[in-house]
Write a structure and sequence with these properties.
The protein has 254 residues and is of the alpha/beta class. The chain has one domain: Phosphatidylinositol (PI) phosphodiesterase (TIM Barrel). It contains ten helices and eleven strands. Helix 3 runs parallel beside helix 5 and helix 5 packs parallel to helix 6. It is globular and about 50 Å long.
Length: 254
Amino acid sequence: MQKIAFFFMTLVTLFSSIFGAYGETKDKVVFIGHRGYSFRYLENTADAFNGAAKYGFGGAETDVRVTSDGVLVCSHNSEAVFADGTEMEIAEHTYAELTEKPLKNLKTFSKIYLCTFEEYLDILSANDMICFIEFKGAFTEENILKAFDMVSEKYDLAKCPLQSFDINNLILAKSLYPDLPVMLTCDEHDDLVDQALSLGFSIDMDLHNLTQETVDMFHDAGLEVAAWTANTRANISYCLSLGLDYIESDMYWK
């Protein structure tokens, strides 16, 4: 029943967008390249982040993990997959070991290596873009300090919201950096989302479970709402109809 309702909602909003009903809203929302411009380039790489800047995204999102020697790197999965078919667990290897050979790249087939968090910040700050930073797994205080001291040196905390499925990451980071915008990443509206609202944290929710009621609750509290991952025109239209602040997408939408 939920899927049927969502289908009709997106159908209505798609027709509305075709006739220009959300033109004003689209001008206000920030489109975020999900793991960079990942439809065109290998996700979470310098190519993908540069591509997001080149093609006009207002920001990009990356997933951050920590190598065995404490280097912050960009990777959604816990393992790096290489061009020769081998894999390495990021947390169990040094950065030097993880960059001895290129990553598997079926997007452009060029040689490309694991991207550091520092490279990500350099690319986005040079292009004045919003940096969505998602911590994967539980982060220690040491690694949170390492990440956001780097952000403070290179860019602007206000343009670098921290995201995580682990609300404890957000609570700890907020205690260390009171001015840091934080955003709970979530699948649906549950008790954890209500806790985020009570703590004054924004949310980034799976668009298929995001409703106008949830958006209004956060906006009424002066908080922001993002949705992931909008990869069809129907998805985009639905997100625009909700009046979101950010829309994450693998693709570039004019």
